[in-house]
Design goal:
5-stranded mixed sheet, alpha/beta, Maf protein, Alpha-Beta Plaits, elongated, Molybdenum Cofactor Biosythetic Enzyme, Chain A, Putative competence-damage inducible protein (chains A, B), 14 helices, homodimer, CinA_C (chains A, B), CinA_KH (chains A, B), CinA (chains A, B)
């Protein structure tokens, strides 16, 4: 099955929003074993939308639409497709009831245009919308399948994942779907990881091996087509074992979680606590850890020591270390070590991580942009400090420094430190 | 001029990356007064790429490509377009020299395939690449203009903003371009802001008024077409004055900066310092402030008091306030006030902001998800606390709480507190 994704909305063409829906759907379709050959974006204009449908019908046998199912006259996707395939439109009673109930419970007057959201193309299967009002449509006409999904991601995603995927699987029949394992790595760059796996990547046929890199993390997706999970596991096993053998010291998870989630999981299992002392990352590391629900159990808190004053007063870094000719300065291995040790002692945690460096845009203390020290203090253990020379812009340097600190902690927690 | 954006790359079709380039280019083209009617994504496949070119030529007079200018055999955009328009390809000597120099300085062996990045379609204008190797191409054939830009955003953006835009302006001649002012608001939601401006939005013709909302911030873009900045200023003035009059207490900037940048700017002007005490935002607020270059001058540091222990020890919150039956607890106005006051006193800063609340996913201290208190302590001033009931997911609640805290500080700094 060859698919084309058609996102409908003038706000996309004006650059007001990013087309994240296309990515989400592309990934989801790939997982179902459906190839996406084109993505198209077209505005809220019936003529141009119908032209886009015509072009897509000529080069795909599945058209997945997102956007244009709302209540306003700008929302044209359903009408345009119905006209294109020569079918009428009828009211989907359960959706209409839901809309009326919503208005009743809110106590507002029913606005007639909301009726549009309950409309279904003749013969189409309704797709449930658990997070909004507009009902989705799925239909096949003349051998071409159409999936109509809402535009707002919070409605589109669950509808695609639930009723949309189920309908697509029915169309595909018992054919093989894509099964994959996402292997996540830290402490290693994309090119170095590729070097370690280069022969596997070159010779890959089935399973396939696809490296990814984003937001300071590196991943490899290992995929195969199989009719069920057991068959998939058998086909994937050999490749997974070989990759594990070569990358043991960097492989922190075999599901798509960030390193902060892996670290919080291990701290929780080991019932150990963490504190953070941040200078150049300025709270970003703490922000990453606390994105993880349940982090409050293991993360006690931290100090952002952006000024030397706070480094001295709150973390016990001595003035001699920070100031005066010949002193190592705030951006130094010595300061990173004392920050971590001071933080750990002050809050009596099992671990403390520290980060100090220059994230740019200009030199500080005559130290180059990208020079960062990360420290790890451990109760009853030896304090470790790593020196990094990172490239990229301010945000990139901060993010990579934070991820590197989490990797140091992961090494200790997994007994590889 | 009607444009189509064609992003080339199989990684987009697999959903491995989001097509942020399309948004960036759409916005940039709109600012030049160029309408974008379609965005297309096609894989690294010459045949399908040439088909896409053919379709785009039939419905646009400017085709802007991104991706496919790199060194590998997968990078096909230049070759496909040259073949389509029947032109040869030649070496762009200055780019070739730059590539050779880069290899010489790195000390690595020159890889022949890199020569591809210095190739230019016959008669094309080269577009300088300050952040990478591949040279851009700009040319007009049979009344249709083509702009070829690299795929990596850090190369594409500066090339489009510099040589790309300049070349497009030449093609457009002295015609009117879009001039706009971005007005940024805090402390107000999108729908409330729309209510304040609804008659202006309904009756808008020239200038146009477009509301935006993203990442906890609300904006309005006021735009008009004009041949120069003076004419634009005259045409925009009346609308800007009226919007300012209605929104004074929320309007924090008339350029596209986040509230944290406005706050750092005002603190710097007023030579005042800030510290932060965060609970549920967990360092995110501090992370936002320190994204701003130069924030180190006014931001002394902060404490992430994720545990009650840290609240007591580092911020001087009393056990009676936090624990025991009938105590207000960590999520309370009282605790928010003491956190801010304790932080300010400990670091002797002019201001301290505090945030404590429940960002979810489940209730804490029997307090509902989304209940957040933000506090502001000021040297010699009265401590203020605001109670918020925020909706959304964990990240959304944290972000909106952080932005609200910054708004409180902005109010004080601008004399509206």
């Amino acid at each position: 099955m060859r698919a084309e994704i058609i996102a409908v909305g003038t706000e996309l063409l004006l650059g007001q929003i990013v087309n994240t829906n296309a990515q989400y759907l592309s990934r989801g379709l790939a997982e179902l074993g459906i190839d996406v050959y084109y993505q198209t974006v077209v505005g809220d204009n019936k003529e141009r939308l119908m032209q886009a449908i015509g072009i897509a019908r000529g080069r795909a046998d599945l058209l997945v639409f997102t956007g244009g199912l709302g209540p306003t006259l700008d929302d044209l996707t359903r009408d345009a497709l119905a006209e294109y395939v020569g079918r009428g439109i009828g009211l989907h009673e359960p959706t209409m009831e839901k809309i009326m109930n919503m208005f009743a419970s809110r106590g507002g007057a029913f606005v007639e245009s909301n009726r549009r959201q309950a409309m279904l193309i003749e013969g189409a299967t309704p797709l449930r919308n658990d997070t909004g009002l507009a009902v989705g449509n799925a239909l096949t006409v003349d051998g071409i399948s159409y999936l109509l999904l809402p535009g707002p991601p919070r409605e589109m995603k669950p509808m695609f994942d639930n009723d949309g995927s189920a309908w697509l699987k029915e169309q595909l029949g018992p054919s093989a779907a894509l099964h994959s394992v996402m292997m996540k790595f830290a402490g290693i760059g994309e090119s170095m990881l590729e070097d370690l796996l280069i022969d596997l990547i070159r010779e890959q046929q089935d399973p396939t091996i696809a490296p990814y890199a984003k937001e300071g993390e590196v991943a490899v997706r290992v995929s195969t087509k199989a009719t069920d999970a057991d068959e998939a596991a058998r086909k994937l096993e050999g490749t997974l074992v070989e990759i594990r053998r070569r990358t043991r010291e960097y492989l922190y998870a075999e599901d798509d979680v960030p390193i902060e989630a892996a670290v919080v999981r291990m701290l929780t299992q080991q019932q150990r606590t963490l504190t953070l002392a941040e200078s150049c990352t300025g709270g970003m590391l703490s922000g990453l850890v606390t994105t993880i629900p349940g982090s409050a159990v293991v993360y006690k808190g931290g100090i952002v020591s952006y000024s030397n004053e706070v480094k001295m007063k709150q973390l016990g870094v001595s003035r001699e270390l920070l100031e005066g000719p010949g002193a190592p300065g705030a951006i130094s291995a010595e300061t990173a070590a004392v920050m971590a040790e001071g933080m750990r002692a002050a809050a009596d945690s099992d671990f403390a991580l520290s980060v100090t460096g220059n994230a740019g845009p200009s030199a500080a203390e005559d130290k180059p942009v990208g020079l960062v020290y990360v420290g790890l203090a451990e109760r009853g253990g030896v304090t470790r400090v790593e020196k990094l020379q990172l490239s990229g812009d301010r945000e990139g340097i901060r993010l990579r420094a934070a991820k590197r600190a989490l990797y140091m902690l992961w090494q200790s927690l997994s007994g590889q430190g």
